[in-house]
Specification:
Blueprint: H1 2-8, H2 11-23, H3 28-38, H4 46-56
Length: 64
């Protein structure tokens, strides 16, 4: 499902997503897609997501 969604994105958005993955930056849109695919509402705002992302970096934390 993720690949189909990525193909629907315009090139600049796809490029930004790949760049975020390469440098290890948080990707809130990918988090929202994950929540939709997993069937639960997002529990974090974008600000909370970024904070949790950096707080848990290197600790192996996961949302599900």
């Amino acid at each position: 499902m993720r690949r189909e969604t990525e193909r629907a994105l315009p090139f600049p958005a796809r490029f930004a997503r790949v760049l975020r993955r390469i440098i290890g930056a948080p990707d809130y849109e990918a988090y929202l897609e994950h929540c939709r695919a997993a069937g639960h509402p997002p529990r974090l705002t974008e600000r909370e997501y970024v904070k949790e992302f950096f707080d848990s970096k290197g600790t192996g934390g996961r949302c599900c």
